[in-house]
Amino acid sequence: MQQQSDDSQQLQTVQDTWYARLPFNYGWVIAAISGIGVLMSGPGQTYVVSVIIDPLIEETGWSRTLVSGLYSAGSISAIAGALLAGRSFDRFGARASLSGITVLFGLAAFLMSKISSPVHLYLGFFAIRSLGQTAMTLVSTSMVSLWFIRLRGRATAITMVAGPLGQALFPPILTTVIAAYSWRDAWVWMAIAIWAIMLPPAILLVRNSPESIGLLPDGVRRRLTRATPAPPDTEIHWNLKEAVKTRSFWLIWVAGFPLSLIGTALTFHHISLMSSKGIEQGTAAGILSVMAVVALLGTFIAGWMLDRFPNRYVLAAGLALLVAAMLLTFVIASPWQGFLYGILMGLSQGLVMTANIVIWPNYFGRRNIGGIRGAAAVGMVVSGGLGPLPFGYLFDLTDSYDVAILGFLALPLLCVIASILAVPPTKREQTASPKQLLKSK
Asked: What is the CA radius of gyration of the chain?
């Protein structure tokens, strides 16, 4: 892409920069900002929306099925955010993309405080899911993929710590704000937080790639002059057209569905699910916090594993834990079982989410990672959007979530197999050897 060629030209002309003189790898600054981006994507995540749902329904009188349907429709429509963010990242770079997304996301959060009809709610869900859950997360995590190769698993894990941290912090804070003021005021405060926390580092500190400032991935430092060519690029890069022709792309793509679909649904209806098992709301909120803390541990475990073991096995292990958590819901009858469920779900989230970020650049290279991950995210966005609706509908119909959970149980089981079969793709050499050319004549 144009961005990468520009980076290569800059790399050949940079003699020395203050970035290279730093006593640490500037990539860790990028990783920290990426973590802030993941944290501040919270207002577009299901764990924030789930706290807003009950007071919203109470004020408006709209049914749970209607609200779930609008959330699903808004989330599915958010595929636009995935595609546009991916293309913007490859074309304009990380700084411009992240800054623009931050401005628009804050505006979307503010407008959520003004909704007055189901149409407004759909548009609000579409905006926060497109810009927060999809675009901001995709751009933030893709930045890490550009700055790290050998340490990509660990760097991504450190970044993804912010996800569980947000899941642990946002619900109790929002619960307090809603109790003291209203759910509408909560959206106003979240809009202000997005702008205040995310915009300064996005504008002032983000750089598009290590090559653009005279560095190499993983903090490798080279003093380069006009007379000294850039080191050869030993990565194998795929473009989107090439990637979608591989079996591995589609196997990983499908393996991303279960946590997105089922995990989103279970989180969206978490309070209601725990209540249906006889667990009070305060304890249910505590389970959600434990889930977030354990997911934090899961991201560190995943980061360590992804730098040492085949990525597909880490993905499969996370999906197997999701199966175990789903099975446990059928027997939950006391708080300790609810907390065990939260532990299994947290570990699953940590492993699957981190593996799903690292595996794409590890398999397909850095050069077109925005477009590839944007296309891959379409499936996750659609499946995440579909999840809450059938769970909400079947609960209204049967007064239980058991039917929905049983109906979706086969999906993660099949995806465990898909993950194991997703071996790294191989790319044919683009040039033939002289011997091969002679044979072809």
From this structure: 22
pLDDT given for residue 14 in this prediction? 42
CA gap 329, 338 in Å, rounded = 8
Count Cβ atoms within 10 A of the Cβ of residue 156 and give its class: 0-12 exposed, 13-18 middle, 19 or more buried: buried
Identify the pLDDT of residue 197: 96
- What sign has the CA pseudo-torsion 374, 379, 382, 384? negative
The predicted-structure confidence for 413-432, as pLDDT tens digits, reads as follows 999 999 999 999 987 633 33
Domains annotated on the chain, with CATH: 2-218+240-421 (1.20.1250.20)
- Its pTM surpasses 0.70: yes
Calculated CA dihedral for residues 175, 398, 74, 249, nearest 10 degrees: 110
Q: What is the enclosing helix (H) or strand (E) of 24?
A: none
> Could you identify the residue written with the tokens 């794409």?
360
* Alpha carbon separation from 254 to 145, 291, 425 (Å, rounded): 21, 24, 16
The residues facing 215 across adjacent strands are 221
Task: Sort residue 93 into left (φ over 0), alpha (ψ -120 to 50) or beta.
Answer: left
Lowest mean pLDDT among 134-143, 215-224, 227-236: 227-236
pLDDT in tens, 348-368: 999 998 999 899 999 998 888
Note the residue count of the chain.
Answer: 441
The Cα-based distances of 348 to 45, 66, 239, 242 in angstroms read 17, 29, 30, 30
Cβ burial, residue 301 (10 Å; 0-12/13-18/19+):
middle
